[in-house]
Amino acid sequence: MVVLVLLSLGFVLAYILARYMPISKRKEPKDHYYSLPGGSMGWPFIGETAAFFKPHRSDSIGRFLQQHCSRYGKVFKSHICGGPAIVSCDHELNAFVLQNEEKLFQAAYPKVMHDILGTYSLFFVSGDLHKKLRNVITSFIALNRSNPDFLLCIDQLSISLLDSWRGRTQVRFHDEIKVFTLGIMVKQLLSIGPEEPTAREVLQDFVTYMRGFVSLPIPIPGTAYSKAVKARKRLSKRVAEMMEGREKREEGGRREGSADFLDVIMSREDLNHEMKVSLVLDILLGGYETSATLLSLILYFLARAPPTLLHKLKEEHEAIRAKKGAGEPLNMEDYQEMEFTRNVIHEALRCGNIVKLVHRKAIRDVKFKEYVIPSGWLVFPVFTAANLDQSLHDNPCEFNPMRWTVSEKGMGKKLTPFGGGSRLCPGAEIAKLENCFFIHHLVLSYRWRIKEDEMPIAHPFVEFKRGMLIEIEPMEDNNHH
Ligand code: HEM
Question: Which residue of 101, 342, 407, 456 lies most exposed, with the fewest beta carbons within 10 A?
Answer without folding.
Answer: 407
